[in-house]
């Protein structure tokens, strides 16, 4: 059976959502003081880089940017054999910082739980806020995003795909039925 693919957001819509999220982050945190961005590898790290750029354009300040790999923190590690280890790259202390954790799609909440476990192993942030591009529902854990590009309720068997170009800039978000 062939999959039906529906584009939900094009490049312009994704960029508008990210610009809005950047403004919301700055407004909520009253600027950039003690603010850091950490993207979940892979997808969230590309979006964190985009937010990093937008915050720099808005505020004229480059906040620290990092990437976290959650492979070893996943609760389904034993049942999956297709997971490649990535690299965590956080070159700044997390202690007493306001961490904006960034991911592309929020579904069950298990990826975010794993990312928070990994972050806590690296330090004790003042707080962790969650920025995501797409919230598709179906939470299995009590995880709630602080910044959302778009709410997109889906059926459990549907998929959301965020496509990036060669420079890791998001070009579209599609629903696959």
What can you tell me about this protein's structure?
This protein has a single domain, classed as Rossmann fold (3-Layer(aba) Sandwich), CATH 3.40.50.2020. Helix content is about 25%, strand content about 30%. The chain has helices at about 10-30, 45-60, 110-120; strands at about 5-10, 35-40, 65-70, 100-105, 125-135, 145-150, 160-165, 170-175. The strands form two sheets. It has a five-stranded parallel sheet with strand order 3-2-4-5-6. Strand 7 and strand 8 form a beta hairpin. Helix 1 (about 10-30) crosses helix 2. About 35% of the residues are buried.
The run of helices and strands is: EHEHEEHEEEE
CATH topology: Rossmann fold
Give Rg in angstroms. 16 Å
Globular, elongated, flat, extended or rod-shaped: what is the shape? globular
- Side by side, the strands of the main sheet go 3-2-4-5-6
Helix-strand category:
alpha/beta
Per CATH, the architecture is: 3-Layer(aba) Sandwich
> Mean pLDDT, rounded to whole units?
94
